[in-house]
Amino acid sequence: MQIEKTVEGVRAQVRAWRKEGLRIGLVPTMGYLHEGHQSLIDRAVKENDRVVVSVFVNPIQFGPTEDLDTYPRDFEADCILCEKAGAALVFAPEVSEMYVEDFSTFVDTSKVTEELCGKSRPTHFRGVCTVVNKLFHIAAPDRAYFGQKDAQQLAVVRRMVRDLNMDIEIIGCPIIREKDGLAKSSRNAYLSPEERKAALVLSKAIFTGKAMVEEGEKDGEKVLETMQNIIQAEPLARIDYVEMVKWDTIEPHHQIDCPILVAIAVYIGKTRLIDNFLSH
Ligand code: PAF
Fold it and tell me: How far is the CA of 27 from the centre of ligand 1 (A)?
């Protein structure tokens, strides 16, 4: 497996693969890889001839009071996981390689970024869209893989690709959970043992809401209220949002009469965790 730190290094390899007619899959990540990322790489390896994994903690998607400086990193372990999973290349640039000193071009996707995480993290998706755009230009993939756990991110990237006529297939992959239900996340590493137990309130709320919808509940308010009550019963939990939106447009919608996304963001102590379910 090749490790590249420069844009030019990736481009040279991608050009060579393209000359051979090989199909390229891209898995964009911020590193500290877990089984959730691995499931994306596994799928990409199955569906493409070569897989590029980017490992880059993108500073411009973090707000000024967020966890950029403490974001967990373990590049050696990431490379081992990528190699075992069958990735052909890991792209791990320095910040200066991705953002020249007077960098001044951003990709801003509106509407689908107005609710949920876009509301509490107002500059987040501009940072995500900008870096994903750059990664798409650098790795020129046929397909790119994103986890359903970041459901709004998936919707935003799909919208950007549609609106900007990018010839890239966006593949959403299911949420991977710990045995006890907690959605896998690099940020789970922040949780103390007591907080780790409290964090189960997220999956508990998600599973309960999902069961209500599957049993035929059509009133979104009832589902959201039940979920809120579950979360509020946990003293270490503080709700950022518990919301139901239309899956394609991310507009609030409290009737279960179309494909919906039910998404939550909850602080457990200082750690902000997200989870969701889709109903079609
Ligand atoms: O989901 C993530 O890890 C990041 O938002 C992404 C897509 C790699 C962009 O930095």
Answer: 9
Q: Which DSSP string do the residues of 207-262 spell out, in sequence order?
A: HHHHHHHHTT--BHHHHHHHHHHHHHTSTTEEEEEEEEEETTT--B--B-SS-EEE
Q: Of all helices (H) and strands (E), which one includes residue 70?
A: none
Angle subtended at Cα 152 by Cα 146 and Cα 170, rounded to the nearest 5 degrees: 35
Angle, CA of 261, 189 and 1, to the nearest 5°: 90
Q: What are the φ/ψ torsions at residue 247 (nearest 5 degrees)?
A: -65, -40
Task: Enumerate domains of the chain plus CATH numbers.
Answer: 2-173 (3.40.50.620), 186-279 (3.30.1300.10)
Question: Token match 């609030």: residue?
Answer: 252
Q: Is the CB of 58 under 6 A from ligand 1?
A: yes
Task: Give the active site residues.
Answer: 37
For residue range 43-86, list pLDDT tens digits in order: 999 999 999 999 999 999 999 999 999 999 999 999 999 999 99
| 29 pocket-lining for ligand 1 (C-beta < 6 Å) | yes
Residues 263 and 150: their CA atoms lie apart, in Å, by: 9
Separation CA 138–CA 10 (nearest Å): 7
Q: Are 131 and 77 in contact (CB under 8 A)?
A: no
Split at pLDDT 50, 70, 90, the class of 229 is very high
Q: Are 77 and 53 in contact (CB under 8 A)?
A: no
Name the 3-class secondary structure at 147: strand
Distance CA 227, CA 44 (A): 34
